[in-house]
Amino acid sequence: MIDNATVDRIFSTADIVDVVSDYVTLKRRGVNYIGLCPFHNEKTPSFTVSPGKNICKCFGCGKGGNPVNFIMELENLSYYEALKFLAKKYNIEIQEKELTPEQIQQQNERESLMAVTEWLQKHFTNNLYNHIDGKTIGMSYFAHRGFREDIIKKFQLGYAIDKRDTYTQEALKNGFKLEYLEKTGITIVKDNNYVIDRFHGRAIFPIHSISGKVIGFGGRAIKKDDQVKYQNSPESDIYHKSQIVYGIYFAKNAIIRERKCYIVEGYADVISMVQAGIENIVAPCGTALTVEQIRLLRRIIPSTDEDKSEENKNVTMLYDGDSAGIHAALKNGKLLLEEGLNVKVVVLPPEDDPDTFAQKNNASDVLKYLTENETDYILFKTRHFLEESRRDPIRKAQLITDIAGTIAVIPNPIKRSVYIKECAKILETDEGVLLTQTDKVRKSKMEREYERIKNSSETATVVSSTTVPSTPTDMPPADLFLPEDYPGQLQSDPVPSTNTLFYEEEKEIMWFVVRFGEQIVWQVVDDEEETDVDSSEEDEAEENGSTQEDYEPRKVRDLSVIGYIADQLEKDQLSLNNPLFSEMLKEAKEQQKQNAHFVSSRYFSQHPNPVISALASDLLSDRYQMSKMHTKAKKVENDSELLPKSIPNIVMRLKLKIIGMKREELMNRLKTTPEEALSIFQEIAKYDKVRAELTSKLGEIVVMPTIR
């Protein structure tokens, strides 16, 4: 690992204007620089570089961050690779940190597993060109499949000799331990150390990580009497088949360039389509398409909408024209829609799959067919089932219900509205029917999720006028795309999902934590009563006629923005509902205790977790400003005047939101358990009292960041 001192030196040396200028032509605009975004096509510059904050931000697609984030995104590098990239640029010598024995063991084991798979890939490929069986059997098989030699080399295809333990014994001779051969799954160890090559006699398709490292294999049977067509690497510490897609390393640049990804079913489908010129194409690794694989693609696919980075990401499913292919397309399409992607379908002629279709046609014909036969997934599904249900009212009613359920998973309300209108026309039904059913499905899903969250959270009671129920924190895990060698400082690493409860209020709180976290705004006396920063007990003593000797000032402690927010939440047994926000606040509090020179904005913008540093860079960007409010007495001008009012304001607003949720829950209980009405009304009264006091404290002045 790179030691912290070297990491700090890289961050302090790397100038964001200098780094970005290697890729973008920048023009000065005030204190900042502006240029065309390198991450999406645009005609009007929206990519802003702030030398003062050492961050960049595109207000079109949303991408940006510190110099390390920028290099990671643009060069497709891991966190440590980006650090080394910048160290080389600025001639900084890398000093590796001494690892603990446990870290050394973990790192050595992972590196050993990677070394095994890398060596084995070269062994399999070497067989194709230098072993008699590889040339006569393996290469002949690939030639029969129509694969060109340049494509074979590109995908690093190979062949495993058809003997029981050939490559296992060869690996052992080359110094690899049987323990690691077994852990990668390439060798099967039976009783008495009887070993078998898992892939013997098979054509080999190496599976690469997104950074290009070989992490597993797919073995295709060549002999006709082999009962198992494909043999795949089992799960291991370096290979999780549900989280990676075949061909992603070779496809990622084309996906970014074309702003679209094609999805097929098999390894040969990918290779043949790439050979036909369709490079932005991937396939699941021997499994049905998973949510983790979809989220991996979603992070890579650029948006086709210049105004929103998370909207209009396009995928097209390319499947066989038989019933099995159509069934797979219909099943996977709903999963893709649920993750916010635009989904289309191309159904090939019944006699073809993507592999055979690509082999039969030249590149221009393949592209022409895909372009002309691309159909919107929901419209395809609606029309596909309409004919067989047209004369059967019961089946048509079931179809309407099914289509409504499919539309309901779309996160974007505008898209849902458009699909309801279009599908109602095709189904010859009223839009209101589809809308009602769609809303019913969404409401049912939200209620189930709410019940799950409620049942997993602690039951809170109101013990005083300043205590409110604790907010649920056991949210479903969210995906996170981190570099393979990310050190993992946080206990949980979910992205700041906008679907969590109280997201907007919590994001405003994090805006203050990141921007002003270390600033001292209050002083608190020992009895925990707060006093204004400018108050003086000496002045009070003099007014009462006391002498300096008679006066004994009470001890006070400084209270920062981070300290105040943490104290307020802890006092009422609350925690931020968003897991990432909660961990960031906890980390900020710990860092401020340990480091007298802690600066929240610098700490989080340079955080090794790229999700945190990108979020911090976004909150530090100029798109969020403190509202300049007025009182009757004077105009509030600067942040130091705003903070003492705005921070309690947003904390109380969060508490009010929690109280409102709890009160609504109690009102719903009245409908189902009227016999408990008296006790429920008493609880509601307690919450109403707390709400009234908080509302009174909020007063007329509302000061907050303009978070959108």
Tell me about this structure.
The chain is an alpha+beta fold and 708 residues long. It is 50% helix and 11% strand. The chain has 27 helices and 20 strands. Strands 12-14-13-15-16-17 form a six-stranded mixed sheet, sandwiched between helices. The protein has a five-stranded antiparallel sheet with strand order 1-2-3-4-5, with helices on both faces. The chain has a four-stranded antiparallel sheet with strand order 6-9-10-11, sandwiched between helices. Strand 4 and strand 5 form a beta hairpin. Helix 17 (393-408) runs antiparallel to helix 18. The radius of gyration is 30 Å and the shape is globular. Mean pLDDT is 79; it is low at 457-495, 528-553, 628-636 and 700-708.
Summarize the structure.
The relative contact order is 0.07. Helix content is 50%, strand content 11%.
Key terms for this structure?
708 residues; alpha+beta; six-stranded mixed beta sheet; 50% helix; globular; disordered C terminus
Radius of gyration: 30 Å
Helicity level? 40-55%
Strand content: 5-15%
Shape: globular
Helix/strand layout:
Elements: H1 4-13, H2 16-21, E1 27-29, E2 32-35, E3 47-50, E4 55-58, E5 64-65, H3 67-75, H4 79-89, H5 101-130, H6 132-144, H7 149-154, E6 158-159, H8 166-173, H9 178-183, E7 187-189, E8 195-197, E9 202-208, E10 214-221, E11 230-232, E12 245-246, H10 248-258, E13 260-263, H11 267-275, E14 281-284, H12 291-300, E15 314-319, H13 323-338, E16 342-347, H14 354-360, H15 363-372, E17 375-376, H16 377-389, H17 393-408, H18 413-427, H19 431-456, H20 503-516, E18 520-525, E19 530-531, H21 537-543, E20 556-560, H22 561-571, H23 579-594, H24 600-605, H25 610-620, H26 639-672, H27 677-698
Parallel strand pairs: 13-14, 13-15, 15-16
Antiparallel strand pairs: 1-2, 2-3, 3-4, 4-5, 6-9, 7-8, 9-10, 10-11, 12-14, 16-17, 18-19, 18-20
Helix pairs in contact: 3-4, 5-6, 11-14, 16-17, 16-18, 17-18, 17-19, 20-23, 20-26, 22-26, 26-27
